[in-house]
Amino acid sequence: MRDAFHEDLDKISDSLVEMTRLVGSAMSRATTALLDSDLGLAEGVIENDVQIDAIRDDIDEMAVQLIAQQQPVATDLRIVVTALHMASSLERMGDLAEHVAKVARLRYPHKAVPPQANATIVEMAQIAERLVAQAGSIIAAKDVDGAEALHADDDEMDRLHRDMFVLLVDEGWEGGTESAIDVTLLARYFERFADHAVSVARQVAYLVTGEWEHKRRVGAPA
Amino acid sequence: MRDAFHEDLDKISDSLVEMTRLVGSAMSRATTALLDSDLGLAEGVIENDVQIDAIRDDIDEMAVQLIAQQQPVATDLRIVVTALHMASSLERMGDLAEHVAKVARLRYPHKAVPPQANATIVEMAQIAERLVAQAGSIIAAKDVDGAEALHADDDEMDRLHRDMFVLLVDEGWEGGTESAIDVTLLARYFERFADHAVSVARQVAYLVTGEWEHKRRVGAPA
């Protein structure tokens, strides 16, 4: 039978999984809004970001209640602090999806992404969504080693990010400077979203084990 | 006489002030490295970011020890959670200074910022450094209303950010696409650094009062 601490921790964990689902959906819709120049969809993503922020606030409050009621000792306390950091990262991922939607809205009815860059943006978005879905599964399954499997996608994202800059400065770039600026920022949003997803997945290891030292090796994305 | 909880909290607060000092110094040196194309200075900023990350880890650990030893009740617990969020924001500000330094290193021995954009970058850097210095003073003085005074600088940063984009897409832009990309990202780094500084300063209000509701109105930068 689970003790009260772990039952409360499971509720926080469920909320983290819910956040991964919501930020994944937000990024998916933001990308569609971007590529199809769909104003309504973009505005929906922007408006719904408050829901993601609200869950993060709920997790803060659940953590405070858990600590006050269960008075966990050192290792368990570190686990709760880790959960707070994960919620922070997920909230920022929601903000990044909102930023993508805002670029779509800014350029509507035009398309922010020129045809030349479409394929790379699509690939970046697919990897970003896959990474956050995997992070959600890893949290739900308490899969301590699951983050190792994300390396390939993370490396691929970094490669796409570099490819995009090569494309932007190539003399064959047809989008002009304004599009180059938009695409520069969009590529950064997807890349950072992926970094945060990997960071969240890696933190599951010490969410489960409470091994604080693990964290110092992992680091957090900028 | 201060009780043990507030004595421990003061130590965390001192570390937060130290972080503001370090990230302000990092951004100042990164900007000099950028504008003077000073490779050694840029590499120093990049190498020293681990010190900022280490203080953030120390604050996490101090918070865990404080909670375990003092077992603070609801409002006091919320204060500790707020301190953790502030440390997170400050660590990210350190990362942003590191990003500026990395652009300087990438373009060395050339200058990443073309002469046309120099003045705006200098202004953005000055505001960023002023905001983080003020955030430090506000934490040190427990100045609940101090963040109000940051509005003018924050608005000015947003104006400079918009001005920069106008400059970049102007047909008189002499820097080419590569420089436009560099300057786009640099402008975003300064603007986000400033946003985080304002967010940190605003959190002092509920660091001091423990009024959780205040936070929901304030929000966090993306």
UniProtKB/TrEMBL annotation, chains A, B:
GO biological process, one term: phosphate ion transport
Coiled-coil regions, chain positions: none
One Pfam family matching this protein: PhoU
PhoU domain ranges (all copies): 16-103, 121-204
Cell compartments where the protein resides: Cytoplasm
One Gene Ontology CC term in the entry: cytoplasm
InterPro entries with a match to the protein in the record: PhoU (IPR028366), PhoU-like_sf (IPR038078), PhoU_dom (IPR026022)
Alphabetized UniProt keyword annotations: Cytoplasm, Phosphate transport, Transport
Domain of life: Bacteria
SUBUNIT field: Homodimer.
Family: Belongs to the PhoU family.
Protein name: Phosphate-specific transport system accessory protein PhoU
